[in-house]
Design a protein that fits this description.
Distance between the termini: 52 Å
Number of helices: 3
Strand content: under 5%
Radius of gyration: 25 Å
Number of strands: 0
Helix content: 40-55%
Shape: flat
Largest sheet: none
Order of helices and strands: HHH
Structural class: mainly alpha
């Protein structure tokens, strides 16, 4: 009985995936750009390679700035032990250290 469950739950879908898989994968080094996998459902990717490189650089810089911002918020919370919204006055400090499973 367990084997029949395995067949219907796992083997059958896996077999269908194997049947639909391409037999030969072709990778073209000259026509690809790192991170460009062809997923652009809204058609936002520029057709000009130079404009695409500029947009990719802008996205990288935006991501780096966001990581710095998140690190700053985490550092502030670690410095005084209060959450960022408590520091901004947007929330009440309801944290009770006695409820932690490990006491420091």
């Amino acid at each position: 009985m367990i084997l029949s469950l395995f067949y219907f739950d796992a083997y059958s879908p896996l077999q269908k995936l194997i049947e639909r898989a391409p037999t030969k994968l072709v990778f073209s080094v000259n026509e690809s750009y790192p991170g460009d996998v062809g997923f652009d459902p809204l058609g936002l990717k520029p057709s000009d390679p130079e404009e695409f490189a500029t947009l990719a650089t802008k996205e990288l810089q935006n991501g780096r700035l966001a990581m710095l911002g998140a690190a700053g918020m985490i550092a502030q919370e670690l410095t005084n032990g209060e959450e960022i919204f408590v520091n901004l006055g947007l929330a009440q400090d309801r944290f009770d250290p006695s409820t932690l499973p490990v006491q420091f």
